[in-house]
Amino acid sequence: MHRDIKPENILMDFKGNVKLSDLGLVKVLENSVGISAKSGTKLYYSPEVLDGGLVLKYQVKSDVWSLGITMMEIAFFKFPYVSILEKDFIDEVCDGPAPIMSHDDDYSEEMKEFVNQCLIKDPEARAHIRDLAKTKLAIKFQDLNKTRGYMMNFIQNNTEDIP
């Protein structure tokens, strides 16, 4: 488990290579469950982690939530929640509806399905990383050469020219 998935920890070069950084909180655990004090970045905590008190069961599915929030933020160039105050933010995540990608959003159905599976509030119903690996989006990006091409295309179409 990474335990701190967020956009700042995803590194990408201009050739489309992607790396996950900040591995200081990573835990390798049996059965994908760990008892831990909260760690990581609160804005990307899953509802069950925000609601769980100091000692909690941190599961791989908590990382899946963080991945979904991260993908929404990268896709729309803004964080999906609007609350600024910590208490309001916690209430919005724990008690409000989960952010979703709608059919009107200008992304592939595979992307919308993947992200929405990550952002199911109930951790029992949320996709596990093994389930996500079988999605159409994950299968589409298994070929690293194709993936680099997609990433380079994204970079070229979404960044200004760098001198």
UniProtKB/TrEMBL annotation:
* GO BP annotations listed: stress-activated MAPK cascade
Q: What keyword terms does UniProt attach to this protein?
A: ATP-binding, Kinase, Nucleotide-binding, Transferase
Q: What PROSITE patterns has UniProt attached to this entry? A: PROTEIN_KINASE_DOM
- Enzyme class of the recorded protein, top EC level: transferase
Q: Which GO terms describe its molecular function?
A: ATP binding; MAP kinase kinase activity
State the similarity comment.
Belongs to the protein kinase superfamily. STE Ser/Thr protein kinase family. MAP kinase kinase subfamily.
Q: What is this protein called?
A: mitogen-activated protein kinase kinase
Source organism = Acrobeloides nanus
